[in-house]
Structures are given as structure tokens and as C-alpha cells.
Amino acid sequence: xxxxxxxxxxxxxxxxxxxxxxxxxxxxxxxxxxxxxxxxxxxxxxxxxxxxxxxxxxxxxxxxxxxxxxxxxxxxxxxxxxxxxxxxxxxxxxxxxxxxxxxxxxxxxxxxxxxxxxxxxxxxxxxxxxxxxxxxxxxxxxxxxxxxxxxxxxxxxxxxxxxxxxxxxxxxxxxxxxxxxxxxxxxxxxxxxxxxxxxxxxxxxxxxxxxxxxxxxxxxxxxxxxxxxxxxxxxxxxxxxxxxxxxxxxxxxxxxxxxxxxxxxxxxxxxxxxxxxxxxxxxxxxxxxxxxxxxxxxxxxxxxxxxxxxxxxxxxxxxxxxxxxxxxxxxxxxxxxxxxxxxxxxxxxxxxxxxxxxxxxxxxxxxxxxxxxxxxxxxxxxxxxxxxxxxxxxxxxxxxxxxxxxxxxxxxxxxxxxxxxxxxxxxxxxxxxxxxxxxxxxxxxxxxxxxxxxxxxxxxxxxxxxxxxxxxxxxxxxxxxxxxxxxxxxxxxxxxxxxxxxxxxxxxxxxxxxxxxxxxxxxxxxxxxxxxxxxxx
Length: 537
What we know:
alpha+beta; flat; 17 strands; seven-stranded antiparallel beta sheet
């Protein structure tokens, strides 16, 4: 954990400019889901999202299925990321295509391609080797001939240098009783390992002949000989051969072994001996994290925006809560009973808050209104608007007095006061810097706490306009009874899907029994949906 913190602090100081001339990119993005602890999960699953190749975003769940989509090939290595920072790797080991027949009952959310793999925690950063002082300190000594030029030598002394320094009579002939009449030999000393050539003698030929005879004798001793088998030995050999003959089938090769098929895995992950537990459905304690696989190793680019202090966080949270309450007020309250399957992922609603519309009785919801052709029939009842009666000064004064009375006492009727602000629970607020020099982007998610009414979900995306004011870029509200009509937008994370150092917001669009994944690019408080998967699991 210490190494991750140091790496995160270091990466926060980096800048990430959008690449002007991006290279050829083959990049896949998915979502890794697990329950329990990340290192020792009780269930895991990998969901394919996109493949960026040839400048386009493809659906990773259906791209090049031969027969497995190439983003799910066993051996593909995906890096888990938290706002661009690495949190480990996942090596895919197997893939599964879950498909239910039309109309057949089955578990919710389990439909489409998914994969399973093993998680490996990030390696700890290597510590730099500590420098140690040398035991042999250098000393300065004087060379022979020139005392003004010092040189470095070991503390023990340089014997070669001392010998050279003492030899002051190099140009004179040493005294000797006999004069040296030989010429000066400047050739190098002979190399003992250097091969030499000489003429062969008769002794060498005799030794070579003897060695050859010995080698030939040894070779003949080991050389196999042929002999005719007896009828009994021939029969035994045929029976033994029949026992060893086993029918074999040679595979024609997998459809995934295409030489032109692109590859994603850039390293050999360590495969676990034990099979990872498979995750099914969408349990309440499920965690999600972005997973990225790239054919090229790239430098990390963090997209999380750190908070200046607690006051800034509280100020942004207050503004986002106001946006959320306004969106919920516009959406309204839907009385009914919250389906248990529709609120998976959220804790049960509290029982302390009471909605103003909890006792209201309405007709059952039949879905969105439909338009019909034709001209509406004329009403058989004619509505006549009566002319206003003349108002006297006395009547006008009474009306003025009645209007001045509190609403709770008008005509003896009690008018209920305005309902209290809606209670928001499980609030999540995240800040991002999606591009180099871009405006701060905030994402807020929460759900209501109500009794007698269907739980409602709200998601707000806002950006700073450069003057300290937030502008809503995207707002979504829905309720647990209409998730198939308006899905619940659940933020997963910011992710760079194109290796351009520019991040998009990845959302899960969760319906009643199925879900999709969508990518949104937000620039100048204007959202653009750049990709949506099919109705995958």
C-alpha cells in the first residue's frame, strides 16, 4: 500500500497532453467485477466493453468471434485501473457465452459473453541500491619524471607505476661482463593458448593409426547386428505392435489461430493452478473496476482531481445535492411497492422518512403514453364560460381579507405544508480532470429514502465553467418500478479508451433484468454518447 501511495503522489504531478499524432492503437476496455476481497474474491467476472482498432470503437462482446471474441482470448492481460492508475492485472483464462432461449426463465443479467481470469496484485517498486563507501581510498602519488603531474592510485600502491618511476636509466645499456650483440626484440610474448602448426612425423602417424583402430573396435562393439527372427518371436512382435496401436485424432486447429488476428496480451501472466470462482447475477456487494488491455506498454495518466481541502469538498457536494433534488422534484414521486430485485446494489430504505404522496391512491401505471391517429370526436357537452359577476366594494374587501388569511384556515380547510426535502442516501461524489487543461468534472450519485413509494435514483454530471460556477452537463432520474424504461445510470470510472490521454466517463445502464454499458465524452458541459454496448449481461 505504501508503494501505491508513493506512485499515486508521483503521478499526480504529471501532465497528460492529448497525443497530436497517435500511433496505431489496438486497445480493449472491459469491466472487472468481483465480490469479497480483491486478492481473494468469492466470485469474479470480466465483462467486455470496447475494442479500439483502426480508429473505431467496436463492441468487444461481438468483435471477431472466431468463435471467441478476440478481446476474450485466453492469455489476454488486462490492467485494472482506478482513474488511470494501475491496481494490478487480470489474465483471462476462459470465456463463456450465456444465452437463454426466447421466453425461457433464467437468472437476471446473465446473458451474453463474459470471461474469467486470475488477479495479480501490482508488484512493489524496486528500491534503489544504497551506496556504500569504498574500503580502498585513492591516494595521490608522484610519477617519475614530472613531479607537477599527480595521478591516482590504490592505497596499497601501484607496483607497475613504482617500477616505472624508478627506472631512470631506460635509455642506457646495463652493465654486463659480456656485450649484448643481439638485436632488440619488440615482438609480443608468445601466447600459450595459440595453436601451432608442425610437420607430422612417423611417430604421430603410428599413434593416430592405433587410436583409429581402438575407436573402430569400440564402434563395432556398439553397432547393432541383423538376425532372422524365429516364428515364435515374429508372432510375439506382431501382438505387441497391435497393443501399442491407439487411434488418434489430429485437431485442425482453433478458429482463433488466425495469423491476421490482432493480439492484445503484452506479457506472460502467471496462471493460477486453482480455478477462479465464477460470479453470477448482480449481487448487492459486487465491486467494479475498469480493465484496459493494450498491445503496447504506455505511461500512466491519472485523471482523478484531488480535493484542495474539506471545505471545497463540502461546497461541491452541497451544489450537487441541490441539482439532484431539483431533478427529483421534476421527476415526481411514484407510489407503489419497491421490487426487491430492482434495488440490488443498494441497502434497504430506511423507515424514518415518510413521503407526502405515500397515502395517495393512483391508477396502476400502464407505461408511457401512446399517440393515436385521427381527429378527436366532438364533445356532446357544451362548456359555457359564465361572465364575471359585478363586484361591489364590499365584496372586493371581503375577498382581499380572505386572501390575506393563512392558507391553513381558508374556508375552514387544512392545507398541508410543503413536504420536507427528500432524504438522499449512499451518496458518491467524484472529481475528474478528463483532459490536459480541461475543466473540473464532477459526478454525483444517490438514491432516495422513502416509505410507501418506489425508490428513486439520481445521477448528476456537472463541469466548472471556469469562474467557479458549476453547470449541469447530464442529469438522470428514474425509479425502481421503471428501470426498463429509464435505466439507472451508475458510474464505473473515467477511462482512456483511445490511448489519446483523454478520458471518457463509463456508465453502467442497469435495467430490471439486463444492462448496457455506455461511454460519454463531456466537453464544455455538453455530453456526447460515443459508444453503447448491446444488451449484454
